[in-house]
Amino acid sequence: MAKLYFHYSTMNAGKSTVLLQAAHNYRERGMDTYLLTAQLDTREGQGRIASRIGIGSDADTFAPGEDLFEKIAQRLQVSPVACVFIDEAQFLEEAQVWQLARAVDDLGVPVMAYGLRVDFRGQLFPGSATLLALADEMREVRTICHCGKKATMVVRKDASGRALRDGAQVQIGGNETYVSLCRRHWREAVGDGQTRAD
After folding, report:
1. Is 83 a known ligand-binding residue?
2. What would the pLDDT profile of 79-104 be if each residue is shown by its tens digit?
């Protein structure tokens, strides 16, 4: 039975690595997959999913306003697909997550979405919020803060390395821009005066 999965974490947890490994496992067993990533993320080139550890794969892209149910249905007309993989799922629109759920329900294809849960301000991305509401299964991809605790938050840094509190929700970047932290160290970084010492 097909399901909608949401694999979530902070930056630098290895979400793309997990996605690429899962897709490889399908292909290794002779099953085709369909990979999609956000059109606006061009860090590795247009239509490319890449991991910090050096592995990558070409992918189709999704854009705002695009009907993902139709996109997946058209792909299935070309040849069977065992699973659809979505990278950078936080950039999905609410309607697009519903379209993915419809693809699972009506087309019978599993969809595995990988993305950030919250932005640098500690707020849910719209795509992630909808995935949290609709996913049949959710799995956390864990990473750690510099203190060794589980990182659940991320800060965005300016050019001088200071944590930003305001700005657009979406700004493409990697290690030069974002740092994953536990909630306590995130609060310290953004200047939350209510932080208590252990």
Report:
1. no
2. 999 999 999 999 999 999 999 999 99
Q: Which residue in the list 28, 88, 93, 188 is annotated as catalytic?
A: 88
182 is annotated as contributing to ligand binding:
yes
- CB-based burial of residue 148 (10 Å sphere; 0-12 exposed, 13-18 middle, 19+ buried)? exposed
Q: Is 27 among the domain residues? A: yes
Domain that holds residue 63: 4-142
Length of the chain measured in residues: 198
The pLDDT tens digits for 100-138 are 999 999 999 999 999 989 888 888 989 999 999 999 999
Confidence category of residue 171, pLDDT binned at 50, 70, 90:
low
Q: Is 171 annotated as a binding residue?
A: yes
Q: Domain count of the chain?
A: 1
Q: Is 88 a catalytic residue?
A: yes
166 belongs to a structural domain: no
- Going by C-alpha positions, the residue among 3, 18, 21, 37 that lies closest to residue 142 is 18
- The CATH number of residue 46's host domain is 3.40.50.300
